[in-house]
Fold this protein.
Amino acid sequence: MRKPWTKGLGDSRKGDMAENYALTWLWDNGYEVFMNSGSTGPVDMIAMDKNGEVLKIDVKSESWSTKRNKFMNKAQRTDLQKKLGVQFITYNPVTRKLRFVKHID
């Protein structure tokens, strides 16, 4: 069952919204951001901080877990993303907050 905050939005539109929020959030935090020109691949964007550190970023929308009764990111990095050092940023569609994921793998 689709929740009210995603009603009428397909997965592609939800992903676009999450990426646009991530883009402006990264700008607000001092990053230069370069978007992927296609809709596929292991990264959605590349960001560079003021010190020249480069981050490869994949943006993931959190989804509602009825089992845990909260929003969660269920996605895991692919082997290629791990090899490339891709960092996930999660987006909450209700609060519109973003955060970097602390990867343990």
